[in-house]
Structure formats: C-alpha cells, structure tokens
Amino acid sequence: MTRTEFDSFCETLPAATNVVQWGNASVWKIGGKIFAICSHWGAGETEKISFKCSDLAYAILVEQEGIIPAPYLARAKWVQITSADAMTDEDIKLYIREAYTIISAKLTKAVRKELGI
C-alpha cells in the first residue's frame, strides 16, 4: 500500500483528521488521538505503516515476517509493517479500520457526540 492509498483510505473514516509531522509522516487521528501512521525514513526506504491493534492481534502480528513492534509505540500494542509483502492491502485496511474503532471507543461520550460518531 502506497502512502497515497493509505491516505485515501484513512480519509474515508468518519471524523478522521490528518497531520504531517515527525519528519513528514502522515499521521491519522480521531478526536486528537492517533490510530495509524505512514512514514518513510531514509533514501531507498519503503513506506512503513503503523497502527494500533488489540492485544491478541499484536501478539499474532509481531510473529509474522515483515511486521515488527512499532518503534516508540509497541508498549501501547502498535505494530509496524516493514515489508510491502507482509500483508495485503485489504488486510491493512481491515486492521486500520479496527485501529480506528479501538481508538474512537476510548474517546469520551462527549467527544464522540461532538464528532458525530
């Protein structure tokens, strides 16, 4: 999944917002809380997609080739896809949608109401 495809998908999620930070990373948030990141570091490096996941998904995914605990975010059960063939685009979309759901569920009722979700 390219960064353009990543951004195009994330923008379809209700009330999701995007900022570019941390050295040109595309950071997607709901209610000010991050649920997915697409970053690109160094010449020749591929884009790396990171997202929040459930405890069970985290335990399974970090055992897969091309998926690692996300740097700086692993303690919060985030993974990073480091290889383009580690996961299909459809599976990435499913996990990003789940990350969005996990993070939006942690928002207060008032914030969810304000966002219309």
Overall description:
By secondary structure, this protein is of the alpha+beta class. It has a single domain (3-115), classed as Aspartate Aminotransferase, domain 1 (Alpha-Beta Complex), CATH 3.90.1150.30. The protein contains 4 helices and 6 strands; from the N terminus they run H-E-E-E-E-H-E-E-H-H. It has helices spanning 3-10, 55-61, 89-105, 109-115, and strands spanning 16-21, 25-30, 33-39, 48-52, 67-69, 78-81. Strands 1-2-3-4-6-5 form a 6-stranded antiparallel beta sheet. The two termini are 27 Å apart. The model has no long low-confidence stretch (mean pLDDT 93). This is MmcQ/YjbR family DNA-binding protein. Pfam families: YjbR (PF04237). One of its GO terms (molecular function) is DNA binding. Keywords: DNA-binding. It comes from Sneathiella chungangensis.
List the helices and strands and how they pair.
Blueprint: H1 3-10, E1 16-21, E2 25-30, E3 33-39, E4 48-52, H2 55-61, E5 67-69, E6 78-81, H3 89-105, H4 109-115
Antiparallel strand pairs: 1-2, 2-3, 3-4, 4-6, 5-6
